[in-house]
Hints:
It holds the Pfam family HisKA. The protein is of the alpha+beta class. 17% of the residues are buried. The protein has a 5-stranded mixed sheet with strand order 2-4-5-7-6. A two-stranded antiparallel sheet has the order 1-3. The chain has 6 helices and 7 strands, in the order αααβαββαββαββ. The longest helix has 97 residues, at 74-170. The two termini are 25 Å apart. Helix 2 runs antiparallel to helix 3, helix 4 (221-238) runs parallel beside helix 5 and helix 5 runs antiparallel to helix 6 (330-340). The radius of gyration is 38 Å and the shape is elongated. The chain has 3 domains: 11-58; 145-208; 217-362, Histidine kinase-like ATPase, C-terminal domain (Heat Shock Protein 90), CATH 3.30.565.10. Strand 6 (345-349) and strand 7 (355-362) form a beta hairpin.
Amino acid sequence: xxxxxxxxxxxxxxxxxxxxxxxxxxxxxxxxxxxxxxxxxxxxxxxxxxxxxxxxxxxxxxxxxxxxxxxxxxxxxxxxxxxxxxxxxxxxxxxxxxxxxxxxxxxxxxxxxxxxxxxxxxxxxxxxxxxxxxxxxxxxxxxxxxxxxxxxxxxxxxxxxxxxxxxxxxxxxxxxxxxxxxxxxxxxxxxxxxxxxxxxxxxxxxxxxxxxxxxxxxxxxxxxxxxxxxxxxxxxxxxxxxxxxxxxxxxxxxxxxxxxxxxxxxxxxxxxxxxxxxxxxxxxxxxxxxxxxxxxxxxxxxxxxxxxxxxxxxxxxxxxxxxxxxxxxxxxxxxxxxxxxxxxxxxxxxxxxxxxxxxxxxxxxxxx
Length: 368
């Protein structure tokens, strides 16, 4: 079963990654700033030393000129040269000592800053861990409550659906009976929709908790596509939409959880039926692609603006904020399911030119 153990929450992983990246940027900026300040200070020192060396050189040249004019004895000139050499040695030593002290001071400041950052980051990490514990406890309580409420709601919905089915079955053939039949079928439709919404909320809670469960095994992808088309054919026909499948072989093995990938295809087809106008067409295709199996769901609906293609798989996102035909969870859940299988999902579309949703799953070798 993949996975059975609780994984870190996705938002925790995202926060940790963002925090690491921010700290790396901070360290890089500190290093660049420190190096820049050090280089500027070194340049100032070098200019001052160069100016001092030039002044000393000019002063010595004038002294040499005066000795030449006064015809100073050779012994005096040698004594001056010896003093100058000693002064130069002393100056170089003083400068070397000064440079060494400056480097030690810089290293000490660097260590102090590193220690300060470490202490600050340890305090931040400790605070973050504490907040996460509190948040996880609150989320666990929420998940327990949601599981309890959803169980009770599904039990009640099951009872409503059962009674509605009995009304449909026992409806008389007269006008009143047919009206009762239509009303009961509407009730069945609404209870099915409510049941799907409850399922979506539970899936989102599982995803947030890192507990989305999938059980991949070798399955026939073409059989799954045909099953999906058969289930959705009545809904598409009722809307005046053509629904078909494009397959080039009798079977195609892939590794996937049958019910979960059926859920993905159901989400994609539900959206396609929702947005495809009467007289439009929806087509499901499945084909091998290197070591993967690629599914695609094409529709002739209004299409999706390019700037929205990167957002349609976000949680609770909808093209129209006023759209109340769903909660904007289907594509988000589909993305998480496909990625839990090790696959990818994406969309290609242009306004007024329809849309095609693709997803891939790992292929499975044919036995023998």
